[in-house]
Protein 1
Amino acid sequence: MKFSKLSNTKFVYSIISLIFACFLFGYVTTDTGANTNGAANKATLSTQKSATVTVPLKVNVSSKYFVEGYPENVKVKINGPAALVQTAENTKNFQAYADLEGLKPGKHTVKLKVSGVSHELSANVQPEKVTVTISKKATATFPIQVRFDSTLIGNGYAAGIASSNYSRAKVIGSRSSINAVTNVVANVSLPEGVQHSVTQNVTLEALDENGKPLNVVIEPTTVKATVPIYAATTTKKVNIHLVASGGGDNTKNYSLSTDTKTVTVTGTKQALSRLQSLNVAVPVSGVTSNTTKTVPIDTIQNGIIAVSPSSINVQITVSGQENQNSTQSQNGNNQQSGQNNQDATSKTANNQSQPAQKQGQTGQ
């Protein structure tokens, strides 16, 4: 009786209505959210985007040829759905290439292509074409020179003999480029005022006679180069050896002498242990008569930082070959004169004997 009265009350109807309202609200919210997410995903896929990506340019060519003139990198402009463009931009999982297969040596202009891009994207290479030169491949081997700026070494210190973990490098390129190579160098960058040995991984360069890098392939590409640096406080007295330099007159002889027989050299212990004498270059270009020159002593040598005295006086004695040539010429003339006199005497004797021969022939 009480339950029946309670069920007919407005309170019960209100509770039931509230439950149904919550259920309907939850259903509508879930369905709306699903539709919204689907629409958002669809909108994301339909949004268009473009991006420009820089990638290396690959060259497809026969292994017997070497190619010059193409850029190391090119730009690829990609257009399409934003999500796919973003993926391609982040991963760079595509290639730009020039197909040179089947082409002969010479200059060629070819169109660049792209591979590995989704079919839903469009891709354009910038530049569209490149002009390349194809040559027969040539190879040569060169010693590696480790170079550095010795002026950066700290006071009282000097460098020993620089070296690298490879002594020679193979250079690959066109025949003209290989013929132009004069040095393969590893340039080590020293910190200013350095007082300790330096080891660096250095990229090799092939240079021509003007120091200009050449477009070639070098194997290995990099080397580990070391510049040993030591305290230069050891001194040693050594003899000097005078050497004529500067291209003097070929018709003259140059005799060099100096009153300074020895000099004191300051350097590293390692360098001085190998040093027995010091060469001093004496320029003789333009010297035509006996003279005395003050000649500076070059201290730019491995492990040497100073020489005392720093300059010496050198006597240059010039002796020409003119007197010798004159004597030889006079002797030649005398020999020629004697030969002429001998020929004349012989000719006279022959002339005198001819009548007697004829007379004898007549008598017979």
Protein 2
Amino acid sequence: MPPVRSYHRWLPALAMFGAIHALAATPDPALTDTSGCTALIDIVQESLRGEIDVACPVSDKVVCESKNGQIRALLEIIDQRRKRNADECDTLAQVNRLLRTLPPKS
């Protein structure tokens, strides 16, 4: 009966090894879920549309219109990437980089 005792001693270790191996083989759903990125892009779009809706003051009309042109270009980039079914998180990263190029709010 000694082999049975040996199996009982190693059974927890073997079970742990099998569980670790099984977990490593399954993809992490958080890495494939882009719903958070999609929600953030939706928020960014609404915010950018709200920026365009504000009338430009007469004193800064040229700067304001230039900024609005850049905002329209960002919205177009988002629309084009969504039409191509591009990765939403990549789109969010690209839009974030481009948002940093906008002039600061006055």
